[in-house]
Amino acid sequence: MASSTEYGWRTWELSLTVDHQHEDVKKEFPLQVTGDLHVGGLMLKLVEEIKIAQDWSDYAFWWEQKKCWLLKTHWTLDKWGVQADAKLIFTTQHKMLRLRLPNMKTVRLKVSFSSTVFRAVSDICKMLNIRRPEELSLLKQSEGTLKKKKKKDKNSKEPATEDILDLSDSPVSSGLPANAGLYSKTMTPIYDPVSGSPASSTITWFSDGSSSEQNCSILALSHPTCSPEMLAEMYQPRTLADKAKLNAGWLDSSRSLMEQGVQEEEQLFLRFKYYTFFDLNPKYDAVRINQIYEQARWAILLEEIDCTEEEMLIFAALQAQYHVSKLSLSSETQDSTCESEVDEVEAALSNLEVTLEGGNKSNILEDITDIPKLADYLKLVRPKKLALKAIKTYWFVFRDTSISYFKNKESAQGEPVEKLNLKGCEVVPDVNVAAKKFGIKLLIPVADGMNEVYLRCDNEDQYARWMAACVLASKARTMADSSYQPEVQKILSFLQMKNWTMSSQAASEPENVDMKPECFVSPRYIKKFKSKQLTARILEAHQNVSQMSLVEAKLRFIQAWQSLPEFGLSYYIVRFKGSKKDDVLGVSYNRLIRIDMATGDPITTWRFSNMKQWNVNWEIRQVAIEFDQNVFIAFTCLSADCKIIHEYIGGYIFLSTRSKDHNETLDEELFHKLTGGQE
């Protein structure tokens, strides 16, 4: 037995702060403790001292100096390293957070500030009914974008009060399990695949009140677009350096919100971080499809991604108020709770036919043994000095992942003039349907940079077949791959949308249509055309998309966005080892691209498929990557923490392991192994 003197010598005073809402109860509690007292025992001792009857189950200790949670309650104070000078705060793990969604709507909900961001985002997506939460993450607005907004805000009028959707009482937000009807991985449709309207089971989840349908539609349906004034106030990147600022604020997925300095009621952005949208299905993904569509729409309006005038008009036609927004509003007025005309079993079977790969494949053995080839006359354009171009017609043969070209068809049995290996190359469309221009720009990696080659096709069909083959070859896949024919059809569909003719009805409509065309195109095109001209051109482009349903229009919009050369690229300013100047690094789902900051031209491309290993030297914050054929690169990141790029690479590799299993659960441990790092 220890004497009272010895016990007094071993104990010490620890000052604890309790984060509670009772004004008549003190918040500071000094307790006598010993080093072998475990955290759970400290909690019990503190609650007995507070003498307030309430549920303390969500409370935990936050160590202010060390910026960490003491969640392992079986650990002793000695094991944690807690001493008398430690500032411990007894506070709730779930706190209120404001999230700005891709559709620019703000939701307020209760989120775990003690879980990793990866797990917190997964819980948020359950609340919002978004499948595949691994594609999203949380973003803090970077200082560079905030400064620009503040300068503009000084001269602007007082902003209107923001309409916030409060989901703090939702089942998941309150710590209860989600309704199975909401976050369903079964084959039971929860959205109308045509209008995108939520099924009755989904509506009842949001609340029992009259606002349930409205809450549901804010997330799943499109609404009238922003005003030109709102667009003018938002941050618009002008250069690659500006675009790099957009990606500087991603939170670390391996750490909690509290550890990263996020405060209660702070506003963060929920965004699709990884541009690999897996298994999109209108019957289950109305919210997800709408939010992807909105993220794409704002990226185009704010010129975060470049597109041609022809492409901009297609995007405008697909999201114009009299088309997508009008359909959304009419959908809201329909009775969302009515029974679907399509039998659910039939719908599930037909959907299974569409979504499962291999539904309409030809003989599989034939695919493996007989690799198709393309052979045709194409024009080869090689850039010359003094802006002159040499254009010659050759006989081209596309076999496996290589293109060979010959002087003519008769000499195809001999040696080619040149053979181009397209593995790892950049494929850029150079198309103007109105001018009958169908070009393919190939940037092929060579020892000292990129070899630039242009191919000219004669018509849409030829272009679609050769373009699809080039895209697959760049990913080290041949035309025998099951995705070749769908890729050809996707390209033809996009070309068809661009190929419009002005009807007499469309020509007369601009006078009668009440629309603000400047809401549907980026500022660059607003300056180029007068309002009436722009309205007429959008109506002209609208002729080819006017019969689409709401969901189909959104999916086509997403598809067209994915077809843009810059799609899926996240930019960072880096300094490569041995270099004396800064470059831009583009991170995509399957490659890294080194880009000249001054000209915007790609210098070198490295494919993830050729990557052997990557690591980070945390002391000097340098990312080092080794590829096949003894290719080694190293760089430091100047526009963001190197952990963000490290997580991007690991995240994309993690996403490549997914499969279409409706019962699959995310392997969170594997994600953290690939992205966490060893700081």
Write the layout of secondary structure elements.
Layout: H1 4-10, E1 12-18, E2 28-33, H2 39-50, E3 59-63, E4 68-69, H3 77-80, E5 88-92, E6 94-100, E7 106-112, H4 117-128, E8 136-139, H5 143-155, E9 164-166, H6 200-206, H7 212-220, H8 228-233, H9 240-246, E10 267-272, H10 286-301, H11 309-319, H12 321-333, H13 344-355, H14 364-369, E11 373-383, E12 389-399, E13 402-406, E14 418-421, E15 426-432, E16 437-446, E17 449-457, H15 460-474, H16 484-498, H17 504-512, H18 523-528, H19 531-542, H20 550-562, E18 570-576, E19 583-587, E20 591-595, E21 602-607, E22 611-617, E23 622-627, E24 631-637, H21 642-655, H22 668-675
Describe this structure in words.
- The protein is α+β, with helices and mostly antiparallel strands and 679 residues long.
- Among the domains are: 11-92, Phosphatidylinositol 3-kinase Catalytic Subunit, Chain A, domain 1 (Ubiquitin-like (UB roll), Roll), CATH 3.10.20.90; 372-479, Pleckstrin-homology domain (PH domain)/Phosphotyrosine-binding domain (PTB) (PH-domain like); 570-676, Roll (PH-domain like), CATH 2.30.29.30.
- The chain is 33% helix and 22% strand.
- It has 22 helices and 24 strands.
- The strands form 4 sheets. It has a 7-stranded antiparallel beta sheet, covered by helices on one side. Strands 21-20-19-18-24-23-22 form a 7-stranded antiparallel beta sheet.
- Strand 15 and strand 16 form a beta hairpin.
- Helix 6 (200-206) packs across helix 7.
- The chain starts with a helix and ends with a helix.
- 35% of the residues are buried.
